[in-house]
Amino acid sequence: VTERLNAGISISAIAREFNTTRQTILRVKAGLLQE
Q1: Distant-in-sequence, close-in-space partners of 26: CB < 8 Å, separation ≥ 6
Q2: What is the CB-side half-sphere exposure of residue 12 using CA atoms within 13 A?
Q3: H or E element, residue 19
Q4: In this entry, which stretches build a coiled coil (predicted)?
C-alpha cells in the first residue's frame, strides 16, 4: 500500500486493488505522515 501511495496512485484505486475500504488506506497514509 505504501509503495502505491508514494507512486501517486489514487486512494480509491488502491482500495479496489486490495479489496479494502478507503478509510483503511487513509489510516495507513496518516501513519506514514507521523513517522
Answers
A1: 11
A2: 0
A3: none
A4: none
